[in-house]
From TrEMBL:
Domain of life: Eukaryota
InterPro entries: Cytosolic_carboxypeptidase, Peptidase_M14
Signal peptide extent: 1-17
Molecular-function GO term, any one: zinc ion binding
Name of the protein: ATP/GTP binding protein like 4
Gene Ontology biological process terms, A to Z: proteolysis
Native source species: Pelusios castaneus
């Protein structure tokens, strides 16, 4: 893995939350052809520190993107992937379940993050807004990876838009996932605009980005998935860290 990562452009942002706790957040930018408009896929994970499967999924995505799989090569040729694998590193360090060091649920503060109280969120939001304002960059896709403590399978939350056509287009990606990944459930996928979710990454970016962009929360069960058409459950294990096997078809080491 270390060798693979040597091919990545890594920018380390040093953050200070307390004198003895220094935290690194990494951004991986993979690819691309010089001169072309950058079509960016932005992925964030582990904003909720107790949701460990979020990190396994994110690791699987990174492993696939830097692999020699032909689909990964095509993706690298056409897209830039920016990945913030751990939005709440201080919460993870401290063993918190939901909150940051200062007791905030960061996934409720996207609308107005403070550089003092929510430094990782503030930094990521600045980066996203900069990209949004850059005419040479098209932010096409945003996925925030979480884990769910009561639901089975993988599934998504998406946004509701007034524009019917945009709303229908948002449903295409989770439908495709459902057709290609045995553990992904479209029936558990839902679209909402609850007031209580207004401060989430998916809702904030859904309101910021234009109608050609797609924003989702990807959830994966803490436990297991039910095979379609059966009552059999298959546990998610660390060894099975490539959760979407049929679309990420290579060995996990
Ligand atoms: Zn979560």
């Amino acid at each position: 893995r270390c060798y693979r990562y040597a091919f990545l452009l890594m920018v380390l942002c040093l953050l200070h939350t307390e004198p003895n706790l220094r935290i690194f957040v990494s951004f991986f930018a993979v690819n691309l052809r010089s001169g072309a408009e950058q079509k960016v896929v932005f992925i964030t994970a582990r904003v909720h520190p107790g949701e460990t499967p979020s990190s396994f999924v994110c690791q699987g995505i990174i492993d696939f993107l830097v692999s020699q799989h032909p689909i990964a090569k095509v993706l690298r040729d056409h897209l830039v992937f920016k990945i913030a694998p751990m939005l709440n590193p201080d919460g993870v360090y401290l063993g918190n379940y939901r909150c940051s060091l200062m007791g905030f649920d960061l996934n409720r503060h996207w609308l107005d993050p403070s550089p003092w109280a929510h430094p990782t969120l503030h930094g990521i939001k600045q980066l996203i807004v900069q990209m949004y304002n850059n005419p040479k960059i098209s932010l096409e896709f945003y996925i925030d990876i979480h884990a769910h403590s009561t639901m089975m399978n993988g599934f998504m939350y998406g946004n509701i838009f007034e524009e019917e056509e945009r709303f229908q287009r948002q449903a295409i990606f989770p439908k495709l996932l459902c057709q290609n990944a045995e553990d992904f459930s479209f029936s558990s996928t839902s679209f909402n605009r609850d007031v209580v979710k207004a401060g989430t990454g998916r809702r904030f970016l859904g309101g910021l980005l234009d109608h050609t962009s797609y924003c989702y929360t990807l959830e994966v069960s803490f436990y297991s998935y039910v095979l379609g058409g059966t009552t059999s459950t298959v546990p998610y294990t660390e060894e099975a860290c490539i959760l979407y096997k049929s679309i990420l078809p290579f060995e996990c080491t």
